[in-house]
Known about the structure:
The chain is mainly α. Helix content is 79%, strand content 0%. It has one domain (2-187).
Amino acid sequence: MLIRILGFLLETVFFVLIGAALLRGWMNGLRINMSAQPGGFVMALTDWLVKPLRRTLPQSVTRSRIDWASLLAAALLALMYGLVWWLLFGLLLAAAPDLSAGPVVLLGVLGFALKMLLRVALQMMFMAVLGYAILSWVQPGSPAYLLFGRLTEPLLAPLRRVIPAIGGVDLSALLLLVLLQIAMMVLV
């Protein structure tokens, strides 16, 4: 029971940190004002890692439209999660982790980290689209609705070209939620 609680806490902390780094990259890529929420929260959570990465990356990379420092921070956090998970639960569940199986362990940790990174990205997209869909019904025009609209527009625009509105209702968000849920099922 203690191992499950520890695993849950570890996953939650890293989920929030990885999600914040990805959201920071997503918001910066879309040129969304970071002084309003959730920008301030995201920056407070990720500055400790993103700022040093920005200083070490070449200027040609940091001037790109893509926020490579935030994306690299998310990848590093996912890798750190994989390493901490392996070290912690390798020690708890086995007598001692087999450090001689280097390449196999490294591939396992990398795979675990990549899976976590993809899961966080898919769940963040799911939450953003769901928030957008709900607010479009209950409070269109609110600042949160406008933020979710800016975040989800690049995801919904291609679907809107294929799926027409039926009875004045845009079904692209529903289709995207279904597709994201399927992607999460495949990932698991």
